[in-house]
Amino acid sequence: HYQVDAFQIVINMADEVEDAYIAFERLSAACYHFLGAKIDLLGIVRTDENMGQSIRSQSPLMRSAPASGAASDLTSLAVELDAIRNSASAQKTTRPVLDLLSELDVD
After folding, report:
1. CA 103 to chain centre
2. What is the pTM for the complete model shown?
3. Is the model's pLDDT at 24 over the cut of 70?
4. For 48, which of 19, 67, 70, 92 could close a Cys bridge (C-beta 3.0–4.6 Å)?
5. Contact (CB, 8 A) for 17 and 46
6. Burial of residue 23 (number of CB atoms within 10 Å: 0-12, 13-18, 19+)
């Protein structure tokens, strides 16, 4: 249908990393069984009270709580996305996702 062999999934708002892996395994099995699609786990973003505070204050999490668990997870996700983008377009000059995140300005 989609002319894509694999999809990459981010499990968001995971209370525990182990729960995220269990959720991914269930989703992966269902996707393969019903759609014949293979999915890969790209990353996990843990539930973090700083995320809600960031949304309410309309301040990027990477600025308001850069040492939080969710910020760490998002940083890891950005690194992974950069690696994927760089491997897919080795000839192109692209800006790293982390640079783009650091330039976010909602003021």
Report:
1. 18
2. 0.73
3. yes
4. 70
5. yes
6. middle
How far is the first Cα of the chain from the last one, in angstroms, to the nearest whole number? Answer: 42
The one-letter amino acid at 3:
Q
> What tokens were used for 21?
């892996």
Average pLDDT over the chain reads 84
Contact predicate 8/42, CB 8 Å: yes
C-alpha distance from residue 37 to each of 3, 24, 26, 29 (Å): 11, 14, 13, 9
If we measure between CA atoms, which residue out of 51, 69, 61 comes closest to residue 101?
Answer: 61
Closest CA to 98 of 68, 66, 56, 69: 66
